[in-house]
Fold:
Amino acid sequence: MKITLKIYRYNTEDGKPPHYDTFVVPDAEENDLVLDLLECVRGYQDGTLSFRRSCAHGICGSDAMRINGRNYLACKVLVKDLGTDQITIEPILGLPVLKDLIVDMNPFYEHYRSVLPFFMCPDDPVADGKERIQTPEERERYDDTTKCILCACCTTSCPSFWADGRYVGPAAIVNAHRFIFDNRDCGAEDRLNILNEQMGVWRCRTAFNCTEACPRDINITKAIADVKKAITTGKIE
Amino acid sequence: MTNIHQFEVVIVGAGGAGLMAAMFASRTAKTAVLSKLHPTRSHTGAAQGGIGAALGNLEEDHPDWHTYDSVKGSDYLGDQDAIEFMCNEAVEAIYDLEHMGLPFSRTPEGRIAQRPFGGHTNNVTGKPVMRSCYAADRTGHMILQTLYQQCLRNQVNFFDEFQVLDLILVKGAAAGVVAVELATGELHIFHAKAVIFATGGHGRIWEITSNAYAYTGDGAAIVLRRGLPLEDMEFFQFHPTGIYKFGILITEGVRGEGGVLINGEGQRFMEHYAPHVKDLASRDVISRAMYIEMREGRGVNGKRYLYLDVRPEIVNKYAEIDGRTRPDGTPYRTTAQEILTKLPDIIEFCRVYLGVDPVTQPIPVQPTAHYTMGGIPTNQYGQVVYDEKNSPMPGLYAAGEAACVSVHGANRLGTNSLLDLVVFGKHAGIHAARYARGVAFQDLPADAADPVRQRLDEMLNRTGKEKTAAIADAMKAAMFHHVGVFRTEEGMKEVIEDIRALKERYRHVHLDDRGKIFNTDLLNAWELGNMLDLAEVIAASAVARQESRGAHARQDFTKRDDVNWLKHTLAWQKEGAIELRYKPVVITKFQPKERVY
Structure:
């Protein structure tokens, strides 16, 4: 099948303003990934096209992009999933574009780092030197938010983040949640204080875009609600 | 202009091995980690089913059993001192990871959960043992995230999206690396006392692969071009269960949970090839069995795939036939809910890429290029060794899939890759930092970045018409068909000729992108150069080894030959040719014997 790709282009080195280029992939298959089409264009039609990718199966989080107006990982959406032979591909929104589909992820990573996204008490002694005991129920409490791959699909689909890039954003809250609700960790209070600040969880307006955009099917809106509740009640349940 | 940085220890690669090395090196030495990807994009994150350690949380197990299984799995090519070291270190390594916060799945008692995996056995009964410590089917993701998080906590210096292109050697010792900053195209020199390559494998050399695009063997190729040998490169693992056509990994954990392989006639076939452990035999054994089934016309619908079946009724049927029990002695019976809980990502991959729901339908699978057993030769401290006498090169280290210790020999057992990178990443980091304390920085040559600059300039100014992608596609197809699961002299010689012809075409590659900012056209071409160099080494090492051992299965030499070939290959690239020499295998407790599962 023939697929027409309309791809956002921007390169400060060529002096042209941002624009779209159109490419035709004449022999695409319905099971091709959108990433396969991009590789085909870069490999055989226009080597200047730039995008990030690595694992090619939705695990590394490199290739978040806006495909027909919605955030996806290019390696996790098949041609047949889109239901059209016209595909528009743009960089994710809310982060500065560096070249074509590559954005500056640093503001996103800074928000991530701001919530202390690491286990806080790794040096606590464990009596027998073995593992800490954690029941399957306790482990389940934060399971959903361990799945995050930092692709930024959620944060860059969030209207509150678009409105003000200082908002910590859903991905950072997800990563804080992963530790706040891990009963082995001892840094919940610090993280809740950070998220209770002006640019923390209260900027969330429960638009649900994040949950819909997440390629890992994390129930992000629920995770944010959990954090809001913990701040309000002072209790981690 | 070239930017110059100075760190005592420079680590190249930020997957599990690189991050582990960074955690330990940074405790006492000024350390930097360079990665062509943001660290959490590293391929460690794709590992699924678990990390092996004889914790014995669910049934009796011992590091000695793990050692024997790994030696046997390696088809006796692994060095037994290194394997024993790794399996003994494994238990503490797992507890260390848990103490760092790694969210392992748990037993009902709250201990780290474990599952059976291929080739891991109770050495008394010969039955599969639950040794793989797991976090659902995303164990690698959890390891990568946890290590990166702890590196952030320890304020490790990261240089993300810096691609290392060259190693600087001064007076026979490591003195630094040359890297390009992808965002700007600027060259940077990292002046170092010790350099650790943790750059992963090179599975992108083959057409059907589970490996990331990033897996282009950069570290191994750099070391090779700097005159050092690569070890056992003919041994490359094909994982039995890749998603048909996509190559995406379906963890062995699926068979650990009771899934079985089924041919086009609806028959379970592994019992004919491995009567004792059946679908939990070593990966090389199963991949060969699958090829034989398909060759003899028992692929599904006559095509090049078979089924992996994890539907609860099928799992329960064969569990009953096999007499499998739970640790408490009750018959093993599973449910759709248990499968969903233990294998959530696998279920999702199948739904997304195949439109198949594994709870109600079998999964079409084919063997997929998966793991580099060979690599940069090292000892168990991660020191790169450069000759038949294992002489260490001062200041140069390698760890993880990039390295060949050798703990995997001719065939790696599932769960030993994550273990390898955690154990040897740690020791490479410790040893490199200790080494750095005892030596001064060497003077750098004035022109340290010149070889790279000249090569990049030359590539950017070529006038040829060849396409990187076309050459890569030809290489991948040739390697998959002739240096894959089964090999013959004729096929491999053909590939060597093909690779040489492709190398000639490569000299005329045309780049569309002549810019500095994220020039991915240039980097893809550079990486293809790395893969072509390695492909030639792989094929040359393979054609020379006239026996079948582990993943190296020759149709013209079908038996293992311990008299002539119980030895490691060392391959050098010298003046356009590959020179092969050999070094002995370390055998301590286990004399080679016939390998049956």
Q: What stands out?
A: Chain B has a mean pLDDT of 97. Chain B touches chain A through 64 residues (CB under 8 Å). Residues 51-137 of chain B form one domain. Chain B has 17 helices and 22 strands.
